[in-house]
């Protein structure tokens, strides 16, 4: 796994240098200037524009609609994006809470903002522990909603809650939505964090069986969840999230079998193929998938995913270890182009040049 990360860094460095020279984009790939980072969909965009003008009504109507229709996946995404906006521009949220202090949607956004801010604090755990009542208020205001429980799982990770506490929260989450992607991702993050601590204990104690258990546990959870999920569910991509966590764990990555990582990628490829090209809904899943494919040097598969991503780059995973996620996305995309081009025989490249295609 260390080798794959070195390969990824080398690819990005080379691509960054070469990308300065203008080139024709291959068929199916939008030019660099057309790529957007974290672009909102057609429902969220008007709410964000209104919020920028201090008007909370469109956001309130949007979240109320998702709650009424039990659109939990969309609700989770919209809450996260609105909270990210309110993190730096919160006048609209302050006005919303003043007008409707008991509104379940406003309470949920408020709790999400508070957790986000606490997470950035050097005193993260202490700050987060103070926020339990805000999360409880959001959960009490909308008893059917699983999203406050996703937030509670994030809170549990940040406060180093015990596994018993985690299991109680997880039970509440799946009782409301057994296949909620956001809750599964939050659970995977919690388990990954806990297992890293266990891994250090395993190394210190030099007990091989416990080391193997540490490496396998999160994959086991992700693979079982994916096996239980319906076709087309984003939970099918949970194993590739586990693969990403292992690829980026540095010295803690250990000896996770590469065939297990490839199997996770293959499952996510099948899921990605169920969605249309340039569909913003699976954009983050596709971005994570292509990151893993690049780490495994699966260039042709990575290029296919870049085509499916279209213009929809996402901060995660490209913000990992970088303050320029869009630039990192573009560097990776160009590096994959170079690798695919280098693998095409000269005769094949000439033929493709005559037909007007590039690396297709």
Blueprint of the fold:
Blueprint: H1 2-18, E1 36-37, H2 44-52, H3 57-68, H4 72-88, H5 91-99, H6 104-119, H7 124-129, H8 132-141, H9 147-158, H10 163-176, H11 181-205, H12 208-228, H13 238-247, H14 258-272, H15 283-295, H16 299-309, E2 312-313, H17 315-318, H18 325-343, H19 346-355
Parallel strand pairs: 1-2
Helix pairs in contact: 1-18, 2-3, 3-4, 4-6, 6-8, 6-9, 8-9, 9-10, 9-11, 11-12, 11-13, 12-13, 13-14, 13-15, 14-15, 15-16, 16-18
DSSP, total strands: 2
Order of helices and strands: HEHHHHHHHHHHHHHHHEHHH
SSE class: mainly alpha
Overall mean confidence score, pLDDT = 86
Work out the helicity level: 55-70%
What proportion of the residues form beta strands (DSSP E)?
A: under 5%
What does this 3D model show about the protein?
The chain has helices at residues 2-18, 44-52, 57-68, 72-88, 91-99, 104-119, 124-129, 132-141, 147-158, 163-176, 181-205, 208-228, 238-247, 258-272, 283-295, 299-309, 315-318, 325-343, 346-355, and strands at residues 36-37, 312-313. The chain is mainly alpha-helical and 360 residues long. It is globular and about 65 Å long.
């Amino acid at each position: 796994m260390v080798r794959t990360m070195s390969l990824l860094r080398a690819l990005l460095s080379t691509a960054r240098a070469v990308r300065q020279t203008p080139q024709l984009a291959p068929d199916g790939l939008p030019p660099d200037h057309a790529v957007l980072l974290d672009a909102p969909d057609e429902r969220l965009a008007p709410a964000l524009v209104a919020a920028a003008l201090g008007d909370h009504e469109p956001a309130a109507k949007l979240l109320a609609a998702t709650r009424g229709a039990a659109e939990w996946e969309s609700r989770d995404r919209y809450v996260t994006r609105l909270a990210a906006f309110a993190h730096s521009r919160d006048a609209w949220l302050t006005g919303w809470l003043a007008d409707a202090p008991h509104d379940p949607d406003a309470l949920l956004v408020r709790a999400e903002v508070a957790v986000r801010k606490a997470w950035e604090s050097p005193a993260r755990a202490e700050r987060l522990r103070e926020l339990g009542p805000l999360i409880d208020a959001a959960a009490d205001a909308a008893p059917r909603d699983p999203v406050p429980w996703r937030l509670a799982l994030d809170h549990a990770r940040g406060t180093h809650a015990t596994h018993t506490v985690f299991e109680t929260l997880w039970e509440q989450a799946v009782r409301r939505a057994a296949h909620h992607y956001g809750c599964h991702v939050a659970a995977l993050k919690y388990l990954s964090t806990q297992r890293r601590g266990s891994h250090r204990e395993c190394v210190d104690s030099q007990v091989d069986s416990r080391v193997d258990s540490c490496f396998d546990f999160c994959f086991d959870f992700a693979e079982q969840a994916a096996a239980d999920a319906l076709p087309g569910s984003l939970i099918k991509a949970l194993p590739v999230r586990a693969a990403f966590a292992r690829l980026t764990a540095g010295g803690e990555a250990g000896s996770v079998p590469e065939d297990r990582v490839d199997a996770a990628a293959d499952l996510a490829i099948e899921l990605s193929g169920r969605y249309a090209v340039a569909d913003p809904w699976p954009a983050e899943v596709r971005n994570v998938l292509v990151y893993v494919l690049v780490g495994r040097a699966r260039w042709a598969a990575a290029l296919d995913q870049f085509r499916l991503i279209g213009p929809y780059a996402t901060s995660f995973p490209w913000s990992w270890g970088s303050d320029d996620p869009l630039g990192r996305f573009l560097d990776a995309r160009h590096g994959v182009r170079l690798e695919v081009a280098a693998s095409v025989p000269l005769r094949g490249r000439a033929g493709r040049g005559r037909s007007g295609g590039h690396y297709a």
